[in-house]
Amino acid sequence: MAKTLPKTDVVIVGVGWAGGIIAAELTKSGLNVVGLERGKERKTEDYFMVHDELRYGLRYELMQDLSKDTVTFRSTEKIRALPMRSYGSFLLGEGLGGAGVHWNGQTYRFLPYDFQIRTKTIERYGKSKIPDGMTIQDWGLTYDEMEPYYDKFEKLTGISGEPNPLGGKRSADYPTPPMKKSPALSMFSDAASKLKLHPYMMPSANLSEAYTNPDGISRAACQYCAFCERFGCEYGAKADPVVTVLPVALKTGKFEIRTHSHVRRILHQGGKATGVMYTDVTTGEELVQPADIVVVTSYVFNNVKLMLMSGLGKPYDPASGTGVIGRNYAYQVLKGNAAGFFDDKQFNTYAGAGSLGVTLDDYNGDNFDHTDLKFIHGGSISLSQTGMRPIANNPVPGGTASWGAAFKANSVKYANRFLSVGGQGSCMPFRHHFLDLDPTYKDAYGDPLVRLTFDFEEQDRQLALYLSGKCAEIMKEMGASHIDQLKELGPYEITTYQSTHNTGGVVMGASPDTSAVNTYLQMWDAENVFVVGASAFPHNSGYNPTDTVGALAFRAAEGIFKYRQKGGSLV
């Protein structure tokens, strides 16, 4: 029988960006908070002088152990799903700080179009522009309502950048200046400007200069070592929860972190949660943590799994299109790119930072006319210099043999003469893309694995080809001697890395018929349960999701405090 612990005001499931922000905000307001993290403790000192590409980049030191918990995948309901046994398409973080430790730091705001995507698409093009089966919906709030929370997250993290000329209005500039512009980035910016596009420096959570945030947390500037994605930052220059929000929450004396604590159920009665049941992974002991408020802030797949395993919210049924838990899963279209090889120029592409780059949004959102195009939305286009670490990178022009003298010669010749312009495409939800519980496979604790049903659609194929063509135009203007670009987007492959930008499954909205949570991320079906993270996105935009996750976490924290004071539904 599970042991019951003393009650707390708030229990948080997963201590990453969302959990850390909420813990800091609530403890500053006087609430007692327990944070349950199934991974181990982490600190900056763990990464001192550890630039180890093999350990972290290729053997996934910071990622979830797939032998204990993974997902199963199928492209359609007609075939059986099988477990993802080795990492490929996306990387699932685990441990204190979550994916906020090993992210690149690219911190974009979503466009105003994103938050009212269905309304704005119909207004401009008519209902017929939305294909059968596409389940886009408005988010229930506008960009203008989100803007103050974006500003809070960017000041918390010290984002270095310059305003997006095609983005939403800002109430303030970024708190720190843009990163350094390398020769390659200057080439991209000049070429884009000649094509009458609107390039701007990528918003970066890798600090361009030393910075002290509103909570008094000071961090050093980025050293451009290029060990960001899949790595922790030894300088603390890359914003992550461990060096920003968690110290603030701990300083109050009202926050307790319990690592190695795998939450398996939300306990509830009479339409309200009473706490959570979790397993201490070091002993196998089952424990119950009672709480007045339960906040679920783990990764997308685990947020969905916890709802389904706990019987909270109606599970999504793709046959009828009803239900909300597991609905509107979306990913990202990252295949629209152009690789350029230069005979007369060399670049130091082994130096860089996770969010060192130049971006343009001329083909993102609804910033361009879609009337004659067979897709909606779009994607950002960037040249980023994140660091081409030598084990994982060996660029050669298309048509080069994969072995022998020509391969060796081109490997040497183009090692420092290669650049890539990439499109990060949005991903729209479809009725037959969803998450549910696998009927066959279980995790190490005997609970079903999450099952992912997803494939690229004609929308994605058309978008990828369009972005690839635009990337090639820019690369040509940059003067590349040889350009390789996408010619066809094939089926979705879970075995090849693309991005960790999974979204949806516990989506937000204005109606309980099409959403699981309201705009404060409070569950419609359990007023003292808040589910926070990219699981709330009704679709995925042409950007990295973290800025929007952080902004929503600040809004959710505000909602939790309001609920604590008044109770009931917040909308």
TrEMBL record:
Gene3D superfamilies: FAD/NAD(P)-binding domain (3.50.50.60). Residues 221-329 form the Glucose-methanol-choline oxidoreductase N-terminal domain. It comes from the Bacteria. Pfam families: GMC_oxred_C, GMC_oxred_N. GO terms for molecular function: flavin adenine dinucleotide binding; oxidoreductase activity, acting on CH-OH group of donors. InterPro entries: FAD/NAD-bd_sf (IPR036188), GMC_OxRdtase_N (IPR000172), GMC_OxRtase_C (IPR007867). SUPFAM superfamilies: FAD/NAD(P)-binding domain. Residues 437-553 form the Glucose-methanol-choline oxidoreductase C-terminal domain. Keywords: FAD, Flavoprotein, Oxidoreductase. Belongs to the GMC oxidoreductase family. This is GMC family oxidoreductase. It comes from Cohnella ginsengisoli. The lineage of its organism: Bacteria, Bacillati, Bacillota, Bacilli, Bacillales.
